[in-house]
Amino acid sequence: MTKREKRLQKLRQNPKDVSLDELRQILESEGFNLDHSAGSHHVFRAKVDNEVIKVVIPFARPIKIVYVKQALAAIDRIIQLKETRPQEDED
After folding, report:
1. Strands 33-38 and 51-58, how do they pair?
2. pTM for the structure as a whole
3. pLDDT for 7-53, tens place per residue?
4. Is residue 64 part of a domain?
5. Number of domains observed in the structure of the chain
6. Would you say residue 16 lies in a domain?
7. Contacts for 66-70 with beta carbons within 8 Å, 24 or more apart?
């Protein structure tokens, strides 16, 4: 199991007491980029094929469980899109 998988598994098992830095690392490892931060909100975006997925995380310590669950749902959507993507022929 890779570090990325371990971090994601830990987040799924315990969505409490997650820091913004931990969540940022996990989101970025799954293909999200910090689009911008406005005030106390951080906006992450990922694009797979033609679908753009956005996650907005208000900065609070610790991050509320509802936002962690939204991030996990977005990560699951990214994984699903990558798995169902038609494979390109490699010549």
Report:
1. unpaired
2. 0.82
3. 889 889 988 888 888 899 999 998 899 888 878 899 999 998 888 99
4. yes
5. 1
6. yes
7. 68/11, 68/15, 68/18, 68/23, 69/15
